């Protein structure tokens, strides 16, 4: 979750499995859901059960890597990302606009713009 932005279908599948576990659904036997998933995934301070929202959790982890990319001046992982997504200096590992990770492309483009 820290390196890849999960697509909607995978987030929905994970949330579905967590809901089935929480409500005790087994096989063809479904129980009534007594609260919406949005209420259940709220923090305890706001009346929820404190179950993490997978989409928000995924985005927070990606943002933490973006912060590390800009705050850290050295590191092999940063050199690899910069080398792979550097649009000013294409190489054999350079990914075209329709391929590669949109997240890391945006990070490297922001780095070049600053």
Describe the structure.
The protein is mainly alpha-helical and 114 residues long. The protein contains 5 helices and no strands. The chain has 2 domains: 71 residues, no CATH class; 43 residues, no CATH class.
List keywords for this structure.
mainly alpha; 5 helices
Write the layout of secondary structure elements.
Elements: H1 8-23, H2 37-40, H3 54-71, H4 76-85, H5 102-113
Helix pairs in contact: 3-5
Classification by helices and strands: mainly alpha
Strand content: under 5%
Overall form: elongated
Distance between the termini: 27 Å
Cα Rg: 19 Å
Regarding quaternary structure, what we see is single chain
Largest sheet: none
- Domain unit count: 2
Low-pLDDT segments, ≥5 res = none
What is the helical fraction, as a range of percent? Answer: 40-55%
